[in-house]
Design a protein that fits this description.
The complex is a heterodimer. By secondary structure, chain A is an all-alpha fold. Chain A has a single domain, classed as Cytochrome C Oxidase, Chain A, CATH 1.20.210. Chain A contains 16 helices and no strands. In chain A, helix 14 packs antiparallel against helix 15. In chain B, strands 3-2-1-5-8 form a five-stranded mixed β-sheet, with helices on one face. Chain B folds into three domains: 1-25 and 50-79, no CATH class; 86-194, Immunoglobulin-like; 201-296, Cytochrome Bc1 Complex, Chain D, domain 2. In chain B, helix 4 packs across helix 6 (280-296) and helix 5 crosses helix 6. Classes of the chains: A mainly alpha, B alpha+beta. At the A-B interface, helix 3, helix 6, helix 9, helix 10 and helix 11 of A face helix 1, helix 2, strand 7 and strand 9 of B.
Chain lengths: 540, 319
């Protein structure tokens, strides 16, 4: 419990060296996490600014705010920035970097220098993409469908593709680092089934990162080769197959959806356990659901091509596999809900985000069933229905999970508490703004409005105006945490080592933790989420 | 078809509504009922329950399998056009829809069809991938360069229906729109005869066939250097490789653009490619001409055929 006598520890990772060099050359996973925090936040607001312009333009049916070409570049760069430079890296490289070693009782990741190198790769990739953006942008959509991207588009396809290619290595190396760390660096007594569920989902995510990312790297290289050297991979005039690109692209990019949402699921398991002060219901089921999602996630890429000339029978196989991948997600939702039963349920900000996540992810998941049902997918795919669906997963799921996690661990990261009332207010604003933005898109999609349309028939305007209004509310909701979290760094109350009364190794060390995380290596003798004894008593 | 899709949609909507309300209701109920009363309170130490885990794994599994079968059956019907269809050729290009009727009428961004009759569109693209989407008919299919993809629908009510390109295709993607105009059969006939037509599509193909000198090798008397085309369409032919192929639109197209890829047994791979020499629309005229020859040669000429058209499509062409 927070007591009035908490003091900031004399030595912690934040005051272990000052100056730019102490950050840019750090090998401390916690400092690297903060480097990532700054970078992904920057990319998030770049991507967000584009979303604002898109929604402003769509407030009227005629495409009158920007030109067609600019509009196409806006949604392309919105997608590229958000997917590759925010959603994929956010939770693993910020929260994962900070927490993986602490949660298993280790001093750092297995390869600290590699970890720093990963951040430099990430930033280099990001700068390439920013360069592409500033020098003219790219208009292929974040999906880079061929042959448009290889023979038709005259924009900066190659710099953007290179940016994605480079950034991919950051994902691979970080994934590798986490896998080795979780296998080799666990503290004495920290068995696999004593690990917090966040680590199971981080582990599953890392597997996808290591196995899937090389495929997207190859794919974007092939696009570059076809553009520059006219190799006939995808262009039918050169003997290529344009749909082959879609197979290769989605072989990575569908698992990438799970790269984005699995870590958020891990965060939610932590938030729900701490928010209810009880073990997550059905721990092994939730843990294995993560692995099941990682494995099945590799087998459903074909569901992006139900209308792309896929054979009837392969469509059926991808359809049934897509229904199967829904099951472990459903199992998780039921287990989180059941965890609340007879809990000591808190209404803290972090828990509000968890409620929001479960509700929005449920809607996102259920609308996924509409898309997996092939006869219905034909009508709704490539419309705003699918935009709404994946934003419920990506924004309603991943970003809610990320923000929830950021609030929950903020006192650990910074040593200070933010203004709880403001934080609750902004969580509420985000929830309302989100639903107002994206729910109307389900409706307008079913009515037939295609995605990536700069201008649209006037009878779709009311729903689009609702969506744009929601987006402005959502924007405010995202800006608020920027301010009160920064404010808390200086003026927030000191948090103490365990402000939430939570269990888990991260709450046994000081806030902020020392550079080596623990003064002595912890010895774990208890199960995960064991709330019977107070957390402090867990230090061996 | 639209009502079949909508029935599935409303079923799923009800299902999604039920589960959303269930989960949201439980969360709100538990959040209020078990709200933390004192700062030191902890929750009941419940770890799980096997019956519940099995229940909420198996029940969703059964429900999703029902949806799968339902969705697949709707899809299967969409993918199988009836035997008797009115065929229209569609070429997508940045950023317009071009339609060629068998009688020779050409339209851009407007497609006139009769109600009460199944219409099959044989689609291809001149440049990038487009997508033919008519929301009112609940149909959508990518229009892929280098391939012929079939879409069919059956308009039941006269009217003007929106047509969208639903696959992002570049700058004016959102301008690649049009209308399907469904008319009473009598009005449709009037429209057909009212249009200025330069003869049927097949006759245009025949003229092209002569202009390109295809007829010097593909002669009707089996004396040419190339296979006889009369009666060929829809048949299965033996290839040099020993494989067989059914002569459909895709095969005719490939034989014109990549003549050496699948050579009929007994012939030399001497035909030059016409890649770059004929447009997509001219290709369709040639295809239609070859098709029309199938009807012309019902006489029992010597044919390298081994069977009738396969049921369904034994080719990469879908729908």
């Amino acid at each position: 419990m927070p007591s009035s006598t908490v003091l900031i520890p004399p030595h912690h990772y934040l005051n272990d060296g000052y100056g730019i060099k102490s950050w840019l050359l750090t090998r401390d996973h916690k400092r690297i996490a903060l480097l990532y925090l700054a970078s992904v936040t920057f990319f998030f607001f770049v991507g967000g600014a584009m979303a604002v312009l898109i929604r402003l333009d769509l407030a009227t049916p005629a495409g009158d705010l920007v030109t067609d070409e600019t509009y196409n570049k806006l949604f392309t760069m919105h997608g590229v920035m958000m997917v590759f430079f925010f959603l994929i890296p956010a939770i693993p490289s910020v929260l994962g970097n900070f927490l993986v070693p602490i949660m298993i009782g280790a001093k750092d990741l297995a390869f600290p220098k590699l970890n720093l190198f990963s951040w430099y790769i990430f930033v280099t990739g990001g700068l390439f993409t920013l360069y592409a953006l500033i020098t003219g942008g790219v208009d292929t959509g974040w999906t880079f469908y061929t042959p448009f991207s290889t023979v038709s588009s005259t924009t900066n396809v190659i710099p953007t593709a290179l940016g994605i290619f480079i950034t991919g290595f950051s994902s691979i190396l970080t994934g590798l680092n986490f896998i080795v760390t979780i296998h080799r660096m666990r503290a004495p007594g920290m068995t696999w089934f004593r690990m917090p569920l966040f680590l199971w989902s981080t582990y599953a995510t890392s597997l996808i990162n290591v196995l899937g990312t090389p495929v997207i790297a190859i794919t974007v290289l092939l696009v570059a080769f076809e553009r520059v050297f006219h190799f006939g991979f995808f262009d039918p005039r050169l003997g290529g197959d344009p749909v082959l690109f879609q197979h290769m692209f989605w072989f990575y990019s569908h698992p990438a959806v799970y790269i984005m949402v699995l870590p958020a699921m891990g965060v939610i398991s932590e938030l729900v356990a701490a928010g209810c002060r009880k073990p997550v219901f059905g721990y092994p089921f939730v843990a294995f659901a993560s692995l099941a999602i990682a494995v099945l996630g590799f087998l459903v890429w074909g569901h992006h091509m139900f209308v792309a000339g896929e054979s009837v029978y392969s469509a059926m196989i991808f359809s049934i596999l897509s229904f199967l991948v829904a099951i472990p997600s459903a199992v998780k939702v039921f287990n989180w809900t059941a965890t609340m039963y007879k809990g000591a349920v808190s209404w803290d900000t972090a828990m509000l985000y968890a409620y929001g996540f479960i509700g929005l992810f449920t809607i996102g998941g259920l609308t996924g069933l509409f898309l997996a049902a092939i006869g219905l997918d034909v009508h709704v795919t490539d419309t705003y229905f699918i935009i709404a669906h994946f934003h419920y997963i990506m924004v309603g799921g991943t970003i809610m999970g990320y923000l929830g996690g950021l609030h929950y661990w903020w006192p650990k990261i910074s040593g200070r508490l933010y203004n709880e009332a403001l934080a609750k207010l902004s969580a509420g604003i985000i929830f309302i703004g989100f639903n107002l933005t994206f729910f109307p898109q389900f409706v307008v999609g079913y009515l037939g409005m295609p995605r990536r349309y700069h201008a649209y028939p006037p009878d779709f305007q009311v729903l689009n105006v609702l969506s744009s209004a929601g987006a402005s509310i959502l924007g405010v909701g995202y800006l608020l945490p920027m301010f009160y979290l920064m404010w808390s760094l200086r003026y927030g109350r000191l948090a103490g080592s365990n402000p939430w009364g939570a269990v888990g190794l991260e709450w046994t060390t000081t806030s902020p933790p020392p550079t080596e995380n623990f003064t002595q290596t912890p010895i774990v003798t208890w199960e995960a989420y064991d709330y019977r004894a107070p957390a402090e008593g867990h230090v061996a | 078809m639209a009502s079949r899709v909508d029935n599935l949609y409303f079923f799923l909507l009800a299902l999604a509504g039920f589960f959303s309300v269930l989960i949201a209701g439980l969360i709100i109920y538990y959040a209020i009922k078990y709200h933390r009363r004192s700062p030191d309170q902890i929750g009941a130490q419940i770890h799980g329950g096997m019956a519940l885990e099995i229940g909420w794994t198996v029940i969703p599994l059964l429900i999703t399998m029902v949806i799968f079968v339902w969705g697949a059956s709707v899809y299967y019907a969409m993918a199988r056009p009836p035997d008797e269809t009115l065929n229209v050729y569609v070429v997508g290009k940045q950023w317009m829809w071009k339609f060629q009727h068998l009688d020779g009428q050409r339209e851009i961004n407007e497609l006139h069809v009769p109600v009460g009759r199944a219409v099959k569109l044989i689609t291809t693209s001149e440049d990038v991938i487009h997508d033919f989407f008519v929301p009112a008919f609940r149909i959508k299919a990518d229009v892929v360069p280098g391939r012929y993809i079939n879409i069919w629908f059956h308009a039941t009510k006269p009217g003007r229906y929106r047509l969208f390109c639903a696959e992002y295709c570049g700058t004016r993607h959102s301008g690649m729109i049009g209308e399907v105009i469904a008319m009473e059969p009598s009005e449709y006939q009037a429209w057909l005869s009212g249009g200025v037509s330069e003869g049927s599509l097949a006759s245009a193909g025949e003229k092209l066939f002569q202009d390109l000198a295809c007829n010097t090798c593909h002669r009707p008397d089996a004396q040419g250097r190339g296979p006889v085309l009369d009666g060929l369409f829809g048949k299965t032919v033996q290839l040099q490789s020993g494989e067989t192929v059914t002569v459909d639109e895709a095969y005719v197209r490939e034989s014109i653009l990549h003549p050496t890829a699948q050579v009929t047994a007994g012939f030399q791979p001497i035909m030059p490619t016409f890649q770059g020499l004929v447009t997509e629309e001219q290709l369709l005229e040639l295809v239609e001409y070859v098709k029309s020859l199938a009807a012309r040669a019902e006489t029992p000429a010597a044919r390298p055929t081994t069977g009738g058209p396969a049921p369904g499509e034994a080719t990469p062409v879908k729908r």
